[in-house]
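Justification of computing resources. Each target in the renewal requires a structure prediction run like the one illustrated here; the chain below, 412 residues long, is used simply to show the kind of job we budget for.
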Amino acid sequence: MAVDDLITHLDHCVSPAHTTAFSANRLSAVGFEEVGFDSWGTHLPFRGFVRSAGLLLAWCGSGGPFRIVGAHTDSPTLRIKPHPDTGSHGWKQIAVEVYGGILNNSWLDRDLAVAGRLVLNDGRSVLVDTADPVARIPQLAVHLDREVNERGLILDRQIHLAPVWGLGAPSPGEFLRFLADKAGVSPTSVSTHDLVMYDTTPARLLANGTLLASGRLDNQVSCWAAVRAICDVADSGTAENTFVIALFDHEEVGSESTHGAAGPQLDRLLHALHGATDGSLRDRCARSLCVSADNAHSVHPNYPERHEPGHRPIANGGPVIKSNANQRYATTAETAALFERACTMAEVPYQWFVSKNTMPCGSTIGPITSTRLGIPTVDVGVAQLSMHSARELCGALDPDFLVRALTALGRL
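Resulting structure tokens:
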């Protein structure tokens, strides 16, 4: 089943770098050729990909309009600070920095592991994943906070979110020595790091297999769907377009980085793919379509008043088309119509999301990509609950619906 494959992806893709590595292995297994960023001035393979840290770009084809699926490899989390060893009162703790808009309380009392990259003195980086839990953020006992259930939980991100990972006085360098040993490298060879924490509870089906609970559904579902779709398009060999997937990093903090959607890499790839093709790249982009794939809010049964009454997506109701009159999403009437056509071709349902007028609207890489490249864009995603929690919930059918719609779009 498709959802079983997604569960495997979720359990392996515990950091942005792990996502690109896992996706690269999947692409290589079906004939995509990895090339370096320094190869873009030369001939590119018909099927290929490039990657760096938390960024992966892949393509299939050489002519026709571009069909681009953009997603992001990062999720709201706790990142390890450069000097991680801290603590007090007989406890060893890890210094962390809040990354993105986390739900603070969702990280309490969870068994946390650490994953990401260790950058070595020679410039190489190695992946590390403790897999087993190494830390926990304990909540203050109710006996010491008698009014917590009436007043609500108030957390200071600097003071109250530091995980404990042992007993004793903090020792500078100890935590990184521990991680170097896990990665199989000498502690003295480690220069810097790019590390995140994650909940070790595996992805699981519940409600008789109709729902999927996991960390990082936002936005690993879209990353998985994009990779599955480009593999399906490549396998069919029938597409007349150039199918591109762009798995960006740093979306949760604004996308303004070399590996983010506001960076130059997708633009450079499209120029390289266009090459000596007849006609201007500008005209080709105008005939193209970008799908900004990022999860959407399902209607919450306990808070229905927070949702726009006529646009309340439900789990397993199909991909959600996201629209916002103030351009927080890039969807237009024309791009929505094209995505609806793809859903119809794929025989999958679809639904719409619009924010309630009294509720602020989030944003995606869609407006960034359409503004930078001049490519018509539609914002879509799988409906979910608990967005930005350490553990989220979506329908078990929706991820495959999204794959089928994206695959059909690649053939339009």
